[in-house]
Amino acid sequence: MSVFRQLRAIPTLMKVGFAEAVAYRGEMAVWVLATTMPFVMLSLWSAVAAGSPVVGTAKTWSSASFVGYFLAMFIVRQLIASWAAWEINFEVRQGTLSMRLLRPIHPIVSYAAANLAYMPMRLMVTMPVVIGLLLSSGGDTLPRDWRVWVLWCLSMLGGWAITFFVNVAIGALALFMESSTKLMDAWLAGFFIFSGYMFPLDLFPPWLKWASTWLPFRFQIGLPVELMTGVHSFEAGLGLLAQQWAWALLFMSVAIALWNTGVRRFQAFGG
Length: 271
What we know:
The chain is mainly alpha-helical. The chain has one domain (3-268). It is 76% helix and 1% strand. It has 13 helices and 2 strands; from the N terminus they run αααββαααααααααα. It has helices at 3-23, 25-34, 37-51, 63-79, 84-94, 97-102, 107-117, 119-138, 146-172, 181-194, 206-212, 217-228, 234-268, and strands spanning 54-55, 60-61. The chain has a two-stranded antiparallel sheet. Helix 1 (3-23) packs across helix 7 (107-117). The longest helix has 35 residues, at 234-268. It is globular. The protein starts with a helix and ends with a helix.
């Protein structure tokens, strides 16, 4: 099927995915509420900063700084989510991947559309509360330069692309082994520590903060949060955005290569 026809099919796939999100809205709401670690860390770090400001390598963090940071983290975390690795593992184990391979739409395209189709529901669940909190206590941290907001939109897309293609790459490994979910757990462990999800990377020792800039985790979620909270100027953000998209293209290439190789192996064994 041509690329053009694949793209034409995306709106239909999105409609189907959105209908599924509506049908399983209770399950999705539970998942959203289960990813509230930024609120937990907000309470913890705000309490620490209430005693005395926390000194990082580039700035001093007050309670208000932590409010803006972790509210932004919650927003970004919800919007870059992907679960393709678990979905692929399930379909390989159950044998239902064979049915997906028979469809005219490339499976990676259908996984992407299904993940993106959940975005409106996720916004409906999370944004009213988060916007209210931002307006009441975290609005001062937002950037004033509209160009930074353009970079933020592009960084959100790049962060989602890294997350999605990492999921596809790890999920595709299930075509070579019994299950690859443990590898996804290992990736998530690195993500929690080096992405800025649990605490700002500015609180790392200088050498560890420098090392984190060479890892992909920061570009999944840390960069969009940094742009959203006004950490970077437009010029600095532009350079970081280029690094992020380099990671996205790398993981896309790896994911496609693993998928194509794994599917040939899967079909050779009668999958």
